[in-house]
Structure formats: C-alpha cells, structure tokens
Prior knowledge:
Layout: H1 12-20, H2 24-42, H3 48-57, H4 63-77, H5 83-114, H6 118-125
Amino acid sequence: xxxxxxxxxxxxxxxxxxxxxxxxxxxxxxxxxxxxxxxxxxxxxxxxxxxxxxxxxxxxxxxxxxxxxxxxxxxxxxxxxxxxxxxxxxxxxxxxxxxxxxxxxxxxxxxxxxxxxxxxxxxxxxxxxxxxx
Length: 133
C-alpha cells in the first residue's frame, strides 16, 4: 500500500485531500476500513464473556474434517469401507460429536447469561435444532 504524506493533526478537509491522493483500490480499502470503524462505533457492545462464547459457538467444524467425514459416511452407506477407514470414521464421529457437544454447552452457557431458554437462544442466533435420528 502506498504511503501518503499528511500532517499529524488533520482537519476533515486535509483527510479528504489525502484520500484524493489514493489509488482507486486503496481508496476502496480505506472506505471499507472506515465503514468497519463506524460499525464498531454503532454496534452495541457485548460483555467479554458473551463475545468469547459467540466466537466459539460460531467456529465451524474444520472443513477438511467434515469433507473426510462425509466421504467416509458415503463409503459406509455404500459398504465399501476398509477396516482402517471404519476406524477412521469412528474417530472422526467422536471428534465431530465432541465439538458439537462443546458448542451446545457454550450455547447453554450463553442462554444462562442472557437468562433465556436454549430454544430461545438458538432462535435469536438463527440456529436450527438438529433433527433427531
């Protein structure tokens, strides 16, 4: 990113003049950053505990794990798994179930912090309950 010479104490007009010196690409990046800054100012601040829980709740199962898990499920359904692949499927099943159980625990914790039911918490976050098999 190019450097632009500006004074340390900027007026609005000086800042605007500095923006005029930017390339189109840099100006778009600058605008995105300013909009992000505005969103941070405008957004309600969540307590740290809630923010941390939301970050962890929204962490998906790693894509490579899900991809391999789906491949192994397909192999199981087609009855083409080797004994080694079957063991791998069992390990991945445990891993995915553990991650989902941890996620559910965090959802419950967040629901308690907000003093709502788990169903209400999931509704607020736009999460669908998992179907029972």
